[in-house]
């Protein structure tokens, strides 16, 4: 006979089919809203989730927060659709119940779901947005909910779920140069779309010109910010972080200097150097400015790129 989740004790086991029969809702997917009651069920399963880039599920190191990756296997995850039941559960009067996959029913391929208890979305900061690969390996951002337990979760269940890599400390993650996301935070109001396109084109030309070098980007997560910072281009071979600008003018260079100083505090690379990437050679005074700031310079020079100044290792 199906067991009512509200009458389950933390640590008890149920199957998804039993929940679906009793309360309605699908037996597939990680976030299931009951069709007959005001309940939302969420399921975490590392064996299934890791292949889709759901690499952040788990408890915080002190067990106070359950991090849970939202729905969506390709592209940036959205706050609507399948993720809405979690985001809106409190305002709609729905209770939120979490389960972790725990083996199989004897003699079957039916997974057992161990009940973790009731949770609420953290009212102070409902979710983080983190960089992660999709099912085809393309990099994007995912929503990672911050869930707080209504009653204490035993340490044995916390250990069974495991621990998330998300912390309340700043952190930087190397991501592909071609990351596909529209959710990264900029340190200043976004430049006009034409300038963004020119910067992107400049980066593409620069990368194509540097044969034998491996290029990445850095996604920098700050606890105070919902979305990560995203650097322009990182030469992994020479350990140089570049900030590209579409114009070799004073305002653009001053912005680039500020961005690089901001980024390099969080990129933990030994002997990291920072440089500004420009479409042309700037004035002598601006070159002196970069040199005084301890930054290098790379600029387009005909069909190649020239380098000036000596970037000081951070």
From TrEMBL:
| Pfam families assigned to the protein according to its UniProt record, in alphabetical order | SRA_ScoMcrA
- Kindly give the InterPro entries that the UniProt entry links to this protein: SRA_ScoMcrA (IPR058712)
Per the record, the domain of life is: Bacteria
Q: Where does the ScoMcrA-like SRA domain lie?
A: 15-151
Q: What name does the UniProt record give this protein? A: ScoMcrA-like SRA domain-containing protein
The species is: Microbacterium croceum
Q: What is the lineage of its organism?
A: Bacteria, Bacillati, Actinomycetota, Actinomycetes, Micrococcales
